[in-house]
Amino acid sequence: MPDINFTLVWFNLYQIGIAFVLALPIAINREYVDSGGAGMRTYPLVSIACCAFMLVAMDVYKGSDAEARVMYGVITGMGFIGGGAIVKQSGKALGTANAAGIWLTGAIGLSVAYQRYEVAIVLSLIGFLIFQFGSYLKKSDEE
Q: How many angstroms separate the CA atoms of 56 and 99, rounded?
């Protein structure tokens, strides 16, 4: 049985906790403002999963090209999951904001994994502000 490095355990818990907390403002907004399927569970899960994938890759591959390939895979996977949130109905594409939000929370998780907290905080803040106030600026279809 391998020895457990408790310093690393606490560090990873700390990183994943930050990714979780920074996804919450977007998740809360989506839960209460949008009636779509993504909300309090989806956004934090995406953020912590992306963070965890990168933490593992960073530990296993330690800066090699393989670490970059893991990041590319995570980014592509978030785009794929987000694409599943888009539905075409009556000639309109619905769910594009949720798709972008899912991708955004993935970027938050990746930023936290690389300890780029300033990037993660800015993404969280801007994402929340866009979701919270962007509807006031959006052109209405009912004219």
A: 25
Please tell me the distance from the alpha carbon of residue 47 to that of residue 7, in angstroms, as a whole number: 22
CA contacts within 13 A on the Cβ side of 122: 5
Residue 34 buriedness (CB in 10 A; 0-12 / 13-18 / 19+): middle
Tokens of 137: 């600026």
- In the chain, pLDDT over 90 holds for what percent of residues? 64
Is the model's pLDDT at 141 over the cut of 90?
Answer: no
What local confidence, expressed as pLDDT, does residue 93 receive?
85
Under 8 Å CB-to-CB from 7, ≥6 apart: which residues? none
Q: CB of 101 within 8 A of CB of 131?
A: yes
Count other Cβ atoms within 10 Å, centred on residue 101: 29
pTM value is 0.88
With H, G, I as helix, E, B as strand and everything else as coil, classify residue 38.
coil
* 138 secondary structure, DSSP code: S
